[in-house]
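Students often ask why we bother predicting the structure of a whole assembly rather than each chain alone. The short answer is interfaces. A chain on its own may look different once its partners are present, and contacts between molecules only exist in the joint model. In this exercise we take two input lines together and write out one structure for the complete complex. Read the inputs first and try to guess which parts will touch.
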Amino acid sequence: MALRDDKVTLSHGGGGKAMRDLIEEVFTAVFEPPGMEDQAVLEAAALAEPGARLAFTTDSFVVTPIEFPGGDIGKIAVCGTVNDLAVGGAVPLWLSAAFIIEEGTEIALLRRVVASMAREAAAAGVRIVTGDTKVVGRGACDTLFVTTSGVGVIPPGRAMGAARVRPGDVAIVNGVLGDHGAAILAARGDLALSTDLQSDCAALGHLMADVLAAAPGAKAARDLTRGGLASALNEIAETAGCGIEIAEEDLPLRAEVVGVCEILGLDPLYLANEGRLVVFVPEAEAAAALSAMRARAEGAGAAVIGRAVEGHVGQVRMRTAFGGARIVDMLVGEQLPRIC
Amino acid sequence: MALRDDKVTLSHGGGGKAMRDLIEEVFTAVFEPPGMEDQAVLEAAALAEPGARLAFTTDSFVVTPIEFPGGDIGKIAVCGTVNDLAVGGAVPLWLSAAFIIEEGTEIALLRRVVASMAREAAAAGVRIVTGDTKVVGRGACDTLFVTTSGVGVIPPGRAMGAARVRPGDVAIVNGVLGDHGAAILAARGDLALSTDLQSDCAALGHLMADVLAAAPGAKAARDLTRGGLASALNEIAETAGCGIEIAEEDLPLRAEVVGVCEILGLDPLYLANEGRLVVFVPEAEAAAALSAMRARAEGAGAAVIGRAVEGHVGQVRMRTAFGGARIVDMLVGEQLPRIC
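Now the answer. The structure tokens for the assembled complex follow.
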């Protein structure tokens, strides 16, 4: 145990012995990257298959609070990047993790976040193979930011993309909407009421693999993070050059989330999710895709919510519970800062 | 021109229309990533070669000031990650770039940083293929942090690593030491004196390729960032299980840097560089490696500085200009926060 401090100091970022101790004891002892060189060197057998392509993505995570019901910044950093790869049809393989740490941060907190990342990575079948730590002075960042990047392989012949969605394709989500956004709001203590809400944060790589096995004609998928379902559907409608129609009564929503939204004047369609996706599949494969989702814990609440249509190109419309229709636009202002 | 603001607001991070405008106008219009899906999909022909391996690395950059003589946070974010790949023997191919932006940051500053990144990436022969932006409230970060990750390919048969360094191998650096650290110090205005010092920040992928062509037996290389030459040599000595001996009179140092160090009680051996590396090559290839470096602008000041030796395993010793010898230890405390 070379690390005798309780809190991170600037010397833990200085490039010397203290930094090496922090990295070795808190990070690499848990992540066990292959080798100790600055970069990871990886056997790319899956990438060597003719026609295979490489998927590459990145996200910074600045969520507050750092620990919340159902997750923490580390879990979200692993799941978010795994999900970005998965919805593109890639098999997630490797992650990098870069930490920006405020001087004074509790090392015990770092250990919890790192343990959470290792746990999620193992469950998702990915390895955290390389990383970085920087320390900034008090007040120069808010405790801890984590940036993960992910590399995956897209098997030969697989081509997911919003441009492939055609009228008639069915939209399916894998569970209730808005739990993450509502749980974060509640965890911030901005609400007068206390709730049992948990973030939906989950890695969806295995679920996507099952969906693609059951519905090989799946066209496109999106994870429903910032901007929520509404933003994802708008982006797909615009890129695909078709309309999208959803039905309010088909949207899976938890009563508590609806309640939180009513009190705060929010719309659950725009709430962020960290373990939810929408996938568009040909109508003939919709039942198979739905069954594949429901067979997994992270897809137990899966539901058909609508479909792509010929009319109102680039626009998302919702049939309301009262029989009317409304346009579901992209989020214009800003709903919740630092949700992920 | 959808973007009418001068400064970044929280709505630019919210997942809605403002975020899309910021990303499209400031980032993707310049980086021109392949496609607009969340992840980049890349043809991996170089990776499909039998025996080729994938290299993957990441670094967060928190340098202050954001713009300094000879560079800015964007240039350093591209060069740093390119260099991490290059010193491992990889051909750098693709970068990701994730931005954490403080509310109120000038959009003009973002544009300059992005232009700088695009310029450096083009010069280094890499593409910025995917990215992310997050916005945090005032005071939650210090203007702008950038995290880059890099993917490269290690050609079949190439195996660089500190463990391969053997007694007799010659250590070569590609130029004067400490310019970056001294330039950052001067730019912070912490010095009473004004200097003409410029950061040495440079991408070294092409230089490494030339060195490896001239000296195919090259054993290991390290870029001399945080902790400087001293920390890199200590790490190599420890991993290789041999000693390293350098000569003070052989170290390429600029008089101004020595002066700054004397005034501030710093040691140039520990100053950070962002365009400098040390490479260990077999003695028979040292002249060829040196010539290859000197043929490039970023290696014009290359010099042999020492060699690996049988004795004092794991230790770096320096013959001083006065004929004595001193141990060059790893940096223990912290020299300069937020140098990169």
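Check your guess against this: The first helix of chain B runs from residue 17 to 31.
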